[in-house]
Amino acid sequence: MVAVSGSDDDGAPFDQEDAESGGSQALRGGMVKALLAVLVNVGVLTALLVYFGWVRSDRMATLLGIDEAILGMTVDDYVRRSVRSVFILPIVAAIAGLVWVGFDQWWQRRRVRRGQDDPVVQLVARWLWVVAVGIFLFGIALWLIGYAVTYVAAPLVCAGGLLLFLYSLSLRSHLPDSVGFAPLTDGVLRGSVAVLVAVGLFWSATNFATVEGTELARDFPDHVSTLPSVEVDSAEPLDIVAPGVETSCLGEGGDLRYHYRGLRLLESTGGNYFLISDGWTPQYGVVVVLPIGAETLRYSFVRDIDGTNRDAAYPPCEEDST
Fold first, then answer.
1. Long-range contacts of 121-126 (CB under 8 A, 24+ apart)
2. 248: part of which helix (H) or strand (E)?
3. Which of 81, 252, 277, 298 is the most exposed place for a label (fewest CB within 10 A)?
4. Who contacts 274 (Cβ-Cβ below 8 Å, separation ≥6)?
5. Bridge partners for 246 per DSSP
6. DSSP string covering 254-274, please?
7. CA-based diameter of the chain, in Å?
């Protein structure tokens, strides 16, 4: 079999053009595979979901004045609280990837149509790395600004700058006077960029979870009245002392029941209800922990759309004079 080499209308040899095209596709394909190997791994995603859920919960609990550890959250609790933090940012990254694909197609078509001597082709290939470095430095500046939006966006912008820098090296390899990387060096370069980009995505998602937890804690006092109202009946006195909690009793002797109202459901996790009172404030707030499955306790969850508590038929408890 004889290998045939010819030329197209622009005078570029077929085998050379195919080789250049194959090299570009291999570079882009290798980078994409490296990113997907990190991002699409099920074990990595599960660990990230748990971690981001913990970051969000820990930030909110700290600002509310409690330790996140007392909540006793399970893996399922963390995952359910972190889905938004983890998946919004990859969607943004995917959109940016589509924009890059569009630009790459435009540049490749212009290079094939007008040749390597086209001023625009050479300008982009030679100086795109400057734009990439500028974007990376802009990301660092966003982080230094310190606003919530810039705090979340900064790692993403830095990751975008790194990817654009790697892409600019690929474009420079098409220039006549360019010197390509050795295969080992090229693999190390692409792998290093892939790791840094993955770190940028995870870092941005962590910042997002931190900001979300902070905002939830900051707005919490205004949303206490919207939490589910809880009334607790107990065969034994619970001695719940918190602003806004009312205690009343019904029955006598062994049939005596203690009734508590003015409580709100904060969390239901780890086999416990975490309750706060209607009078909770950032300056003074009490968190009551009661077991869900206790035989001596009964919980009533009250829907109070009009903001008025239903009348309780229980009279006040008599004080023990002994």
1. 122/175, 124/171, 125/168, 125/171, 125/172, 125/174, 125/175, 126/172, 126/175
2. strand 246-250
3. 252
4. 71, 265, 266, 267, 268, 287, 288, 289
5. 261
6. GG-EEEEEEEEEEEEETTEEE
7. 111
Q: Which residues contact 236 (CB under 8 A, 6 or more apart)?
A: 258, 296
Query: What is the pTM (predicted TM-score) of this model?
Result: 0.64
Q: Which two tokens stand for residue 151?
A: 């705090």
User: 249 has which bridge partners?
Assistant: 258
Please state, in angstroms and rounded to a whole number, the distance separating the CA atoms of residues 157 and 162. 9
Distance CA 62, CA 297 (A): 29
Q: Provide the angle, in degrees to the nearest 10, between the axes of the packed helices 14-39 and 148-172.
A: 150
Domain ranges for the chain, please list them: 14-221, 227-302
What string of pLDDT tens digits covers the 322 residues of the chain? Answer: 444 444 444 444 444 455 455 555 555 555 566 555 555 556 667 777 788 888 878 877 777 777 777 777 777 778 877 776 667 777 887 888 888 888 888 888 888 887 777 788 778 778 888 988 999 999 999 988 878 888 888 998 999 899 888 888 888 877 777 677 777 877 888 888 888 888 888 888 888 888 888 887 788 888 888 888 888 988 888 888 888 888 888 777 667 788 888 899 888 887 888 898 888 888 888 888 888 888 888 888 887 655 555 555 566 676 554 4
Nearest partner of 263 among 291, 295, 286, 297, judged by Cα: 286
Query: What's the distance, CA 204 to chain centroid?
Result: 7
**In the 8-state DSSP scheme, what is residue 7?**
B
71, two tokens:
């909540």
